[in-house]
Design goal:
Length: 214
């Protein structure tokens, strides 16, 4: 009976030695170096933090990361990397979309530290903004097509209002004919008149010569 009791006591001590620090009474607190005034989606932030056992002594842990859970249930994990002093880590945090998240820091074998809720602002030019811009572009194109259709209808109406049996005169009033023969008639008349005058002058000269020799 004593042997069984002694065995159970040794077994209990062994299990207690294998228990995690959290179960054995150990606990830790994470404090951040600095925290941005606000987080914007699409931007990367480097957060530095220190894990302290019992809130006082910095301690290195096997694994630490920042976990953020969106309202949709999607979980984002940002692993911490040891940097500088004992217990100090840095993690690069990136939120792909705006919204409300719950987040926490895991602290190795210690219980994770809950950080509550955080609101991430939507970055300008994200999916919602691009969709609005695309809608505006489509509306502008539709308006341009409608204006072009109205203009085409107006032109067609103007053409339909003009009678088809009206023909333009061959030569506009007050304009000179383009017939080359007609344009040469004045010059021909002037040449004929000059020829007649020359003949008359020649005959007068011949008459004077005859009188002078008689």
């Amino acid at each position: 009976m004593r042997s069984l009791t002694l065995f159970l006591a040794v077994l209990a001590l062994a299990l207690g030695a294998l228990a995690t620090p959290a179960l054995a009474g150990g606990w830790a607190v994470t404090t951040f170096d600095d925290m941005p005034g606000q987080f914007v989606s699409g931007q990367e932030y480097t957060l530095g933090y220190t894990i302290r056992q019992h809130g006082a002594t910095p301690i290195n842990v096997d694994k630490t990361e920042i976990l953020a859970v969106a309202t949709s249930g999607r979980t984002l994990a940002f692993p911490g990397k040891s940097q500088g002093n004992v217990g100090h880590y840095i993690a690069s945090v990136f939120f792909p979309a705006g919204g409300t998240y719950t987040w926490q820091v895991t602290q190795g074998a210690f219980a994770p530290q809950d950080l509550g809720k955080i609101t991430i602002l939507a970055e300008a030019g994200t999916t919602s903004d691009k969709a609005a811009a695309a809608d505006k572009t489509a509306a502008d194109k539709a308006a341009a097509v409608e204006k072009a259709a109205i203009a085409s209808k107006a032109i067609a109406a103007d053409k339909a209002a003009v009678p088809n049996n009206i023909t333009a005169p061959a030569t506009a009033p007050g304009t000179q004919s383009s017939d080359p023969v007609s344009s040469l008639l004045p010059f021909a008349a002037a040449a004929a008149a000059a020829m007649s005058i020359w003949r008359l002058v020649t005959m007068l000269r011949a008459t004077r010569r005859l009188r002078a020799t008689a």
